[in-house]
Amino acid sequence: MELRPYQAEVAKAILESIQGNRGLTFSVEIARQGGKNELSAHLEVLLLTMFMSAGGNAVKCSPTFKPQTIISMSRLKERLDDFGFAGIWFTEAGYMLRLGNARQIFLSAEESASVVGHTADILLEIDESQDVAKDKYTKEFRPMASASNVTTVHYGTTWDDSTLLEEIKQTNLELEKKDGIKRHFRFDWQEVGKYSPHYKAFVEAERDRLGQDHPLFRTQYALVPIRGGGGLLTSQQIAQMMGKHPRLGRWQGRGIFVAGIDFAGEEEQLEDEILTRPGRDATVITIAEVILPTTDYMTKEPVIHVVEHYAWVGKKHAELYPQMVDILKNVWHCSRIVTDATGIGEPITSFLQKSLGSKVIPFKFTQRTKSEAGFDLLAAINSGRLKLYKQDGSDDYRELMFELEKARSVYRPNQTLNFFVDPSDGHDDYLISLALVVQAAAKYAPRKAKGQSPHL
Predict the structure, then answer these.
(1) What are the tens digits of pLDDT across the range 172-221?
(2) Please, which residues have CB within 8 angstroms of residue 224's CB and are 6 or more apart in sequence?
(3) pLDDT tens, 418-449?
(4) Is the separation of the CB atoms in 183 and 156 below 8 Å?
(5) Residues 167-174: contacts with CB under 8 Å, at least 24 apart
(6) What angle do CA 320, 321, 324 make, to 5 degrees?
(7) Cβ–Cβ contacts within 10 Å for residue 254, how many?
(8) How many whole angstroms separate alpha carbon 384 and alpha carbon 244?
(9) 407-411 β-sheet, strand order
(10) Are residues 320 and 327 in contact, defined by beta-carbon separation less than 8 angstroms?
(11) In 3D, which of 64, 23, 58 has the Cα closest to residue 44?
(12) What is the separation of C-alpha 404 from the centre of its chain, rounded to a whole number of angstroms?
């Protein structure tokens, strides 16, 4: 079996623990698309071969049955065929693969999954351990290894300092200080890139697109955990947004302009969490020029120049309709308009669509979509593509700067982001409108994966 040196190092340590009945628990962090799942599949083939006569069960759990568990099963089937076992292995009960007397059992770690009763006496694998609930692992999966003192492996990429994977990792590092046995393995994108020039080039392009401080780049490729919540933006990131272009009053007869609109309204509760603050009382339109990439720009994606703001406080939406339509259609000739279509924003968006057509794109905030908008905003800032008009002493500029400085971030265990201004600090209308104008500009950028790619 041909493995890259870093994969072989992990496989050797796991096999030594199994053969010596040492019952060690390992944590393995490999950068996204770095071959973590290929390593797992190769190990499973080898162990099924070693135990096909003596028999035994190996157990692997994934955060979800579909698609993660199914993908793992399919990969193992392919590798068994590759190594000459076609027609010899069998599927049992839809979630087990048997080779001789040995079985590889695939289980879901979803909260509702019933897994009690299974026993691992060869190996216990926890895939994407950062996404597995600690209680589920402790109460239902960890006991599977107890009867035979089975070796356990946690695979994944880092997220924050509260995940199961991070907990296992820190325990392993402490144990290594005491007995010198290496239990934690970490291979970031630079290590993987030593053996794959194409991979290195891809990740370097992602670094340029997202910025090296983007949460997804830090966690998925650099393997640096996020340390809880805090400010959404650093002072350096805010400074990076400062542009040199002037604030404009209207369309100049050329250029591509887009808009992001955040409507004033009552508080909106999404899923189990309030994602927008109560008491919001301003409707904000952010206008930006989209500058398509040329050889003069370092990035291959368009630059976004914010050129104007409009804000209304305490004004009824019905009174704003004709004014907004005139601004978007006649003053700026906007090519694309993204609106907050959550709650009260839905009927207003519908009205704008009737007047302006398909160029009006509704954006409904949910936990997932707001997270995507937040990550896209950070990517535009970190890559230097998002620039604000130069400081003009206006109330709009001061309020925008205030909201950027006060913006908070919360990184959830399911690898999503929430961003907001705490109600006790103020409003976030300009912040949300800015995030929406980045979405509006996205039409002119080739869309790429954000780190949640299918695993190798």
Answers:
(1) 999 999 999 999 999 999 999 999 999 999 999 999 989 888 999 999 99
(2) 158, 218
(3) 999 988 889 999 999 999 999 999 866 544 44
(4) no
(5) 167/134, 168/25, 168/27, 168/129, 169/27, 169/29, 171/25, 172/25, 172/26, 172/27
(6) 80
(7) 6
(8) 13
(9) 230-231, 407-411, 417-421
(10) no
(11) 58
(12) 22
Contacts of 439 (CB under 8 A, 6+ apart): 260, 338, 361, 363, 373, 376
Task: Reduce the DSSP state of residue 240 to 3 states and report it.
Answer: helix
Q: Are 79 and 3 in contact (CB under 8 A)?
A: no
- Give the position of tokens 């209308």: 429
Give pLDDT tens digits for 361-416: 999 999 999 999 999 999 999 999 999 999 999 999 999 999 999 999 988 877 88
Is residue 90's pLDDT more than 50?
A: yes
Tokens matching residue 21: 């009945």
Phi first, then psi: what are they for 30, rounded to 5°? -125, 135
Q: Chain centroid to CA 301: how far?
A: 20
Q: Please give the class, per CATH, of domain 5-198.
A: alpha beta
The third-level CATH classification (topology) of the domain covering 229-444 is Nucleotidyltransferase; domain 5 (3.30.420)
pTM across the whole model: 0.77
Closest Cα partner for 258 from 389, 359, 383? 359
Q: What is the spatial distance between Cα 406 and Cα 399, in angstroms, rounded to a whole number?
A: 10
Domain ranges of the chain: 5-198, 229-444
